[in-house]
Design goal:
Elements lengths: L4 E5 L3 H13 L4 E6 L26 H19 L9 E10 L11 H4 L2 E4 L2 H4 L8 E10 L1 H14 L3 E4 L14 E4 L5 H4 L5 E12 L6 E4 L3 E5 L4 E4 L3 E2 L8 H14 L7 E23 L6 E9 L3 H21 L5
Parallel strand pairs: 1-2, 1-7, 2-6, 3-9, 7-14
Antiparallel strand pairs: 3-5, 4-5, 8-11, 8-12, 8-13, 9-10, 10-11, 13-14
Helix pairs in contact: 1-5, 1-8, 2-8
Family: Belongs to the DAMOX/DASOX family.
Pfam family, one: DAO
GO biological process, one term: D-amino acid catabolic process
Length: 337
Protein backbone atom coordinates (compact mmCIF):
# COMPACT_ATOMS: atom_id res chain seq x y z
CA UNK A 1 0.00 0.00 0.00
CA UNK A 2 2.73 2.43 -0.94
CA UNK A 3 0.23 4.94 -2.32
CA UNK A 4 -2.09 4.74 0.70
CA UNK A 5 -3.04 8.15 2.12
CA UNK A 6 -4.47 8.55 5.61
CA UNK A 7 -5.64 11.74 7.31
CA UNK A 8 -5.76 11.94 11.10
CA UNK A 9 -7.92 14.88 12.12
CA UNK A 10 -7.02 16.27 15.54
CA UNK A 11 -3.67 16.78 17.27
CA UNK A 12 -4.44 16.09 20.92
CA UNK A 13 -3.21 13.01 22.73
CA UNK A 14 -5.66 10.77 20.83
CA UNK A 15 -4.69 12.18 17.43
CA UNK A 16 -0.90 12.03 17.79
CA UNK A 17 -0.98 8.59 19.42
CA UNK A 18 -3.24 7.23 16.68
CA UNK A 19 -1.05 8.75 13.97
CA UNK A 20 2.07 7.12 15.44
CA UNK A 21 0.36 3.74 15.67
CA UNK A 22 -0.84 4.03 12.07
CA UNK A 23 2.74 4.64 10.95
CA UNK A 24 3.81 1.39 12.60
CA UNK A 25 0.93 -0.53 11.02
CA UNK A 26 1.13 0.99 7.52
CA UNK A 27 4.83 1.67 7.06
CA UNK A 28 4.65 2.90 3.47
CA UNK A 29 1.55 5.02 3.81
CA UNK A 30 1.46 8.82 3.62
CA UNK A 31 -0.06 9.97 6.88
CA UNK A 32 -0.96 13.57 7.72
CA UNK A 33 -2.24 15.14 10.94
CA UNK A 34 -4.72 17.91 10.17
CA UNK A 35 -5.69 20.23 13.01
CA UNK A 36 -6.56 23.81 13.80
CA UNK A 37 -4.87 23.63 17.24
CA UNK A 38 -1.60 21.97 18.22
CA UNK A 39 0.41 21.41 21.42
CA UNK A 40 -0.54 23.79 24.27
CA UNK A 41 -3.76 24.80 22.50
CA UNK A 42 -5.22 21.29 22.86
CA UNK A 43 -7.37 20.11 25.76
CA UNK A 44 -4.87 17.33 26.44
CA UNK A 45 -2.32 19.82 27.77
CA UNK A 46 -4.55 20.59 30.77
CA UNK A 47 -4.79 16.96 31.90
CA UNK A 48 -2.76 15.77 34.89
CA UNK A 49 -2.36 12.48 33.02
CA UNK A 50 -2.65 10.01 35.90
CA UNK A 51 -3.56 6.52 34.70
CA UNK A 52 -6.88 6.19 36.52
CA UNK A 53 -9.84 5.42 34.25
CA UNK A 54 -13.18 6.18 35.84
CA UNK A 55 -15.33 3.18 36.69
CA UNK A 56 -18.01 4.51 34.31
CA UNK A 57 -15.58 4.67 31.36
CA UNK A 58 -17.24 2.65 28.64
CA UNK A 59 -16.45 1.25 25.23
CA UNK A 60 -18.87 -0.77 23.09
CA UNK A 61 -18.55 -3.79 25.42
CA UNK A 62 -17.01 -4.68 28.78
CA UNK A 63 -14.39 -6.90 27.12
CA UNK A 64 -13.33 -4.20 24.67
CA UNK A 65 -13.23 -1.58 27.44
CA UNK A 66 -10.95 -3.76 29.55
CA UNK A 67 -8.73 -4.49 26.55
CA UNK A 68 -8.35 -0.77 25.82
CA UNK A 69 -7.29 -0.18 29.43
CA UNK A 70 -4.93 -3.17 29.58
CA UNK A 71 -3.33 -2.30 26.23
CA UNK A 72 -2.91 1.32 27.33
CA UNK A 73 -1.22 0.46 30.61
CA UNK A 74 1.17 -1.94 28.87
CA UNK A 75 1.98 0.68 26.21
CA UNK A 76 2.71 3.45 28.73
CA UNK A 77 4.71 1.14 30.99
CA UNK A 78 6.80 -0.22 28.12
CA UNK A 79 7.56 3.33 26.92
CA UNK A 80 8.41 4.41 30.47
CA UNK A 81 11.05 1.68 30.68
CA UNK A 82 12.84 2.81 27.52
CA UNK A 83 15.53 5.50 27.27
CA UNK A 84 12.80 7.78 25.88
CA UNK A 85 10.53 7.43 28.90
CA UNK A 86 11.58 10.58 30.75
CA UNK A 87 11.60 12.68 27.57
CA UNK A 88 8.07 11.41 26.83
CA UNK A 89 6.99 12.53 30.32
CA UNK A 90 6.07 9.13 31.77
CA UNK A 91 6.50 8.35 35.47
CA UNK A 92 5.52 5.60 37.86
CA UNK A 93 3.76 7.14 40.87
CA UNK A 94 1.97 5.92 43.99
CA UNK A 95 -0.69 7.50 46.13
CA UNK A 96 -3.96 7.38 47.95
CA UNK A 97 -7.64 7.91 47.39
CA UNK A 98 -9.68 8.70 50.51
CA UNK A 99 -13.37 9.15 51.24
CA UNK A 100 -15.18 10.14 54.40
CA UNK A 101 -18.52 8.73 53.23
CA UNK A 102 -18.46 6.32 50.31
CA UNK A 103 -16.46 3.04 50.20
CA UNK A 104 -17.21 2.61 46.48
CA UNK A 105 -15.26 5.79 45.67
CA UNK A 106 -11.96 4.22 46.71
CA UNK A 107 -12.40 1.06 44.63
CA UNK A 108 -11.68 0.86 40.92
CA UNK A 109 -12.58 -2.36 39.12
CA UNK A 110 -10.32 -1.49 36.18
CA UNK A 111 -7.22 -0.47 38.12
CA UNK A 112 -7.41 -3.43 40.46
CA UNK A 113 -6.81 -5.65 37.43
CA UNK A 114 -3.86 -3.76 35.87
CA UNK A 115 -1.91 -1.90 38.54
CA UNK A 116 1.03 -3.70 40.18
CA UNK A 117 -0.26 -2.60 43.60
CA UNK A 118 -3.85 -1.83 44.58
CA UNK A 119 -4.84 -2.41 48.21
CA UNK A 120 -6.89 -0.98 51.05
CA UNK A 121 -5.30 1.81 53.03
CA UNK A 122 -4.30 0.94 56.57
CA UNK A 123 -5.73 2.70 59.61
CA UNK A 124 -2.44 4.61 59.97
CA UNK A 125 -2.57 5.66 56.30
CA UNK A 126 -6.09 7.01 56.72
CA UNK A 127 -4.54 9.46 59.18
CA UNK A 128 -1.92 10.78 56.75
CA UNK A 129 -4.14 13.71 55.74
CA UNK A 130 -6.37 15.89 57.92
CA UNK A 131 -10.02 14.86 57.76
CA UNK A 132 -12.39 12.20 58.91
CA UNK A 133 -11.31 9.58 56.35
CA UNK A 134 -13.13 6.26 56.79
CA UNK A 135 -12.25 4.53 53.52
CA UNK A 136 -9.12 4.52 51.43
CA UNK A 137 -6.98 2.71 48.88
CA UNK A 138 -3.30 2.85 48.03
CA UNK A 139 -2.11 2.08 44.51
CA UNK A 140 0.85 2.38 42.17
CA UNK A 141 0.12 3.55 38.65
CA UNK A 142 1.56 5.62 35.79
CA UNK A 143 1.48 9.27 34.84
CA UNK A 144 1.89 10.72 31.35
CA UNK A 145 2.44 14.46 31.26
CA UNK A 146 1.02 15.64 27.94
CA UNK A 147 3.21 18.74 27.76
CA UNK A 148 6.13 16.33 27.33
CA UNK A 149 4.44 13.41 25.59
CA UNK A 150 2.63 15.27 22.79
CA UNK A 151 5.76 17.10 21.56
CA UNK A 152 7.75 13.84 21.86
CA UNK A 153 5.14 11.83 19.92
CA UNK A 154 4.83 14.59 17.32
CA UNK A 155 8.59 14.53 16.74
CA UNK A 156 8.43 10.74 16.40
CA UNK A 157 5.62 11.11 13.88
CA UNK A 158 7.52 13.68 11.83
CA UNK A 159 10.78 11.72 11.97
CA UNK A 160 8.99 8.87 10.18
CA UNK A 161 7.74 11.10 7.38
CA UNK A 162 4.48 12.32 8.91
CA UNK A 163 3.22 15.79 8.03
CA UNK A 164 1.47 18.36 10.22
CA UNK A 165 -1.08 20.50 8.40
CA UNK A 166 -2.66 23.43 10.21
CA UNK A 167 -6.17 23.45 8.86
CA UNK A 168 -9.62 23.89 10.33
CA UNK A 169 -11.54 20.92 8.98
CA UNK A 170 -15.13 21.98 8.48
CA UNK A 171 -16.24 18.71 6.90
CA UNK A 172 -14.79 15.20 6.81
CA UNK A 173 -16.44 14.68 3.44
CA UNK A 174 -14.15 17.28 1.86
CA UNK A 175 -11.16 15.07 2.68
CA UNK A 176 -12.53 12.12 0.73
CA UNK A 177 -10.96 13.22 -2.54
CA UNK A 178 -7.49 13.49 -0.98
CA UNK A 179 -7.29 10.50 1.36
CA UNK A 180 -8.21 6.80 1.32
CA UNK A 181 -9.17 6.84 5.01
CA UNK A 182 -9.97 9.63 7.44
CA UNK A 183 -9.41 8.96 11.16
CA UNK A 184 -11.48 11.35 13.23
CA UNK A 185 -9.79 12.25 16.54
CA UNK A 186 -11.37 15.66 16.99
CA UNK A 187 -12.63 15.24 20.56
CA UNK A 188 -15.29 17.80 21.34
CA UNK A 189 -15.03 19.12 17.78
CA UNK A 190 -16.88 15.99 16.66
CA UNK A 191 -20.05 17.41 18.19
CA UNK A 192 -20.51 19.71 15.21
CA UNK A 193 -18.31 17.84 12.71
CA UNK A 194 -20.38 14.66 13.13
CA UNK A 195 -23.57 16.24 14.47
CA UNK A 196 -23.11 13.99 17.51
CA UNK A 197 -25.69 14.88 20.16
CA UNK A 198 -24.27 12.26 22.55
CA UNK A 199 -21.04 14.25 22.93
CA UNK A 200 -21.02 16.86 25.72
CA UNK A 201 -18.34 19.02 27.35
CA UNK A 202 -17.45 18.51 30.99
CA UNK A 203 -15.54 21.57 32.09
CA UNK A 204 -12.46 21.11 34.22
CA UNK A 205 -10.22 23.64 35.89
CA UNK A 206 -6.88 22.98 37.61
CA UNK A 207 -4.09 24.93 39.22
CA UNK A 208 -0.40 24.20 38.63
CA UNK A 209 1.98 24.80 41.52
CA UNK A 210 5.66 24.31 42.22
CA UNK A 211 5.87 21.86 45.12
CA UNK A 212 8.80 19.47 44.57
CA UNK A 213 8.34 17.95 48.02
CA UNK A 214 5.06 16.38 46.88
CA UNK A 215 5.97 12.90 45.58
CA UNK A 216 2.68 11.12 46.30
CA UNK A 217 -0.74 11.75 44.76
CA UNK A 218 -3.84 12.20 46.88
CA UNK A 219 -7.53 12.08 46.01
CA UNK A 220 -10.28 13.16 48.39
CA UNK A 221 -14.02 13.73 48.28
CA UNK A 222 -15.60 16.42 46.08
CA UNK A 223 -13.29 15.77 43.13
CA UNK A 224 -10.28 16.98 45.09
CA UNK A 225 -6.91 15.79 43.83
CA UNK A 226 -3.20 16.56 44.13
CA UNK A 227 -1.04 14.95 41.44
CA UNK A 228 2.74 15.42 41.16
CA UNK A 229 4.05 15.55 37.60
CA UNK A 230 7.42 15.94 35.93
CA UNK A 231 7.93 19.63 36.73
CA UNK A 232 4.82 20.78 38.62
CA UNK A 233 1.95 19.57 40.79
CA UNK A 234 -1.63 19.65 39.52
CA UNK A 235 -4.36 20.70 41.95
CA UNK A 236 -7.97 20.02 41.08
CA UNK A 237 -10.64 20.02 40.30
CA UNK A 238 -14.18 20.34 39.06
CA UNK A 239 -16.53 18.58 36.64
CA UNK A 240 -19.12 20.95 35.24
CA UNK A 241 -21.45 19.11 32.90
CA UNK A 242 -22.33 20.86 29.63
CA UNK A 243 -20.36 23.98 30.50
CA UNK A 244 -18.56 25.58 27.54
CA UNK A 245 -16.79 28.23 29.64
CA UNK A 246 -13.06 28.31 28.84
CA UNK A 247 -12.29 31.27 31.11
CA UNK A 248 -10.55 30.75 34.45
CA UNK A 249 -13.14 31.08 37.21
CA UNK A 250 -11.79 32.79 40.33
CA UNK A 251 -14.29 31.02 42.57
CA UNK A 252 -13.19 27.63 41.24
CA UNK A 253 -9.54 28.58 41.76
CA UNK A 254 -10.19 29.61 45.37
CA UNK A 255 -12.25 26.50 46.04
CA UNK A 256 -9.62 24.17 44.59
CA UNK A 257 -6.88 25.84 46.62
CA UNK A 258 -8.86 25.57 49.86
CA UNK A 259 -9.76 21.91 49.34
CA UNK A 260 -6.24 20.86 48.34
CA UNK A 261 -4.55 22.76 51.17
CA UNK A 262 -6.99 21.19 53.62
CA UNK A 263 -6.04 17.75 52.28
CA UNK A 264 -2.26 18.42 52.21
CA UNK A 265 -1.46 21.49 54.36
CA UNK A 266 2.17 21.78 53.15
CA UNK A 267 0.77 23.11 49.87
CA UNK A 268 0.22 26.47 51.59
CA UNK A 269 3.86 27.20 50.80
CA UNK A 270 3.64 26.26 47.13
CA UNK A 271 4.37 28.77 44.37
CA UNK A 272 1.43 29.21 42.00
CA UNK A 273 2.43 28.68 38.36
CA UNK A 274 -0.98 29.28 36.85
CA UNK A 275 -4.51 28.07 36.23
CA UNK A 276 -5.79 26.06 33.26
CA UNK A 277 -9.23 25.21 31.90
CA UNK A 278 -10.21 22.38 29.56
CA UNK A 279 -13.43 20.92 28.18
CA UNK A 280 -13.42 17.14 28.45
CA UNK A 281 -15.15 15.51 25.43
CA UNK A 282 -17.53 13.15 27.22
CA UNK A 283 -19.57 10.48 25.48
CA UNK A 284 -21.45 7.79 27.41
CA UNK A 285 -19.94 5.20 25.03
CA UNK A 286 -16.55 6.25 23.63
CA UNK A 287 -16.86 6.20 19.86
CA UNK A 288 -14.22 4.07 18.16
CA UNK A 289 -15.97 2.69 15.12
CA UNK A 290 -16.05 2.55 11.32
CA UNK A 291 -18.30 4.54 9.04
CA UNK A 292 -18.63 4.57 5.25
CA UNK A 293 -20.30 7.56 3.63
CA UNK A 294 -21.03 8.28 0.00
CA UNK A 295 -20.84 12.05 -0.54
CA UNK A 296 -21.24 12.94 -4.21
CA UNK A 297 -21.26 9.25 -5.11
CA UNK A 298 -17.67 8.71 -3.88
CA UNK A 299 -17.13 6.27 -1.01
CA UNK A 300 -15.54 7.90 2.04
CA UNK A 301 -14.02 5.59 4.65
CA UNK A 302 -13.92 6.99 8.17
CA UNK A 303 -12.73 5.58 11.49
CA UNK A 304 -13.83 7.56 14.54
CA UNK A 305 -11.82 7.73 17.77
CA UNK A 306 -13.26 10.30 20.17
CA UNK A 307 -15.38 10.87 23.26
CA UNK A 308 -12.92 9.76 25.97
CA UNK A 309 -14.03 12.39 28.49
CA UNK A 310 -11.38 12.92 31.16
CA UNK A 311 -9.61 9.67 30.29
CA UNK A 312 -8.07 10.48 26.92
CA UNK A 313 -4.47 10.41 28.16
CA UNK A 314 -5.13 7.20 30.09
CA UNK A 315 -6.69 5.25 27.24
CA UNK A 316 -5.17 6.84 24.11
CA UNK A 317 -2.89 3.87 23.28
CA UNK A 318 -5.62 1.24 23.66
CA UNK A 319 -8.21 3.03 21.55
CA UNK A 320 -5.54 3.95 18.99
CA UNK A 321 -4.54 0.31 18.53
CA UNK A 322 -8.22 -0.58 18.18
CA UNK A 323 -8.68 2.23 15.62
CA UNK A 324 -5.74 0.84 13.62
CA UNK A 325 -7.49 -2.54 13.49
CA UNK A 326 -10.60 -0.81 12.16
CA UNK A 327 -8.57 1.03 9.51
CA UNK A 328 -7.15 -2.31 8.39
CA UNK A 329 -10.63 -3.81 8.25
CA UNK A 330 -12.16 -0.94 6.34
CA UNK A 331 -9.34 -0.99 3.78
CA UNK A 332 -9.56 -4.72 3.27
CA UNK A 333 -13.31 -4.56 2.78
CA UNK A 334 -14.13 -6.47 5.97
CA UNK A 335 -16.51 -3.76 7.05
CA UNK A 336 -19.57 -5.04 8.87
CA UNK A 337 -21.40 -1.78 9.04
Amino acid sequence: MSDLKIAVVGAGVIGVTTACQLQKRFRNAKIDILAHEFFEDTTSYVAAGLFRPGTSFCGPSEDITRKWIQDSYEFWDALRKTSEGIEAGILEVSGYIFSSEFPEIVRNRFLEQVCPVYRSATRAELGLCPGNWKFGSFFTTLLTQSSYYIPWATREFQSHGGQLIRQKVASLEHLGTQYDVVVNCTGLGAKTLCNDHHLVPIRGQVSKVKAPWIKTFFYGDLDTYIIPGVDSVTLGGCRQYESWDLKVNDFDSMNIQQRCEALVPSLKGAELLGHQVGLRPHRAVVRVEKEVKNPNGKKLKIVHNYGHGGYGVTTAPGTSLYACDLVQEILSGNSKL
